[in-house]
Amino acid sequence: MGPPIDNSNAVRVDSAVLINFQGNTGASQSRAQYGTNVTGNTAAVSLFILRDIQTITGNTGALCISAQNITTINGSTGTHQIIAMNIGTITGNTGTMYIYGATVNKARANTGDICLYNGAKVLDYDSSNTGRLRTDCP
């Protein structure tokens, strides 16, 4: 499985399992079958995960992520593009999140807009969100 990926330079990783993709300050890209944690990256990150990602949290760089299922997206700032089938919870994010095709179970306490494309939907969107749920984003 390999050690956690924590790099101050640009990095590209291809592996079966991506354990921790964290703290990267250089633009980074990875492909894997499964991923566990995508945390604290301050530069652009592109991830192409065949199956599942458990946690995406505290990232300030732009994220472009493709996965079948994502359990949690939490506390990320900036503009992010997510392509998925299912997302458990999107919570505490600032900035704009573009969601393509996913069914999102819950959205909580997000201050940025959540933009829905390609049939994406949010099942439980409550008043703790100060950003808007949109289908008309530029």
In short:
The chain has 138 residues and is mainly beta.
Write the layout of secondary structure elements.
Blueprint: E1 11-14, E2 17-22, E3 28-32, E4 34-39, E5 45-49, E6 52-57, E7 63-66, E8 69-74, E9 80-83, E10 86-91, E11 97-100, E12 103-108, E13 114-117, E14 121-125, E15 133-134
Describe this structure as you would to a colleague.
This protein is mostly beta strands and 138 residues long. It has one domain. It has no helices and 15 strands. The strands form two sheets. The protein has an eight-stranded parallel beta sheet, with no helix packed on it. It is globular and about 40 Å long. The N terminus is likely disordered.
Features:
138 residues, mainly beta, seven-stranded parallel beta sheet, 15 strands, disordered N terminus
Task: Indicate the low-confidence ranges by residue numbers.
Answer: 1-8
Query: From N to C, what is the helix and strand string?
Result: EEEEEEEEEEEEEEE
Q: How big a fraction of the residues is strand?
A: over 45%
Number of strands: 15
Helix-strand makeup class: mainly beta
Main pleated sheet: 8 strands, parallel
Distance between the termini: 40 Å
Helix content: under 10%
Continuous helix count = 0
Q: How are the strands of the largest sheet arranged?
A: 1-3-5-7-9-11-13-15
Radius of gyration: 14 Å
Average pLDDT metric: 85
Count of all domains: 1
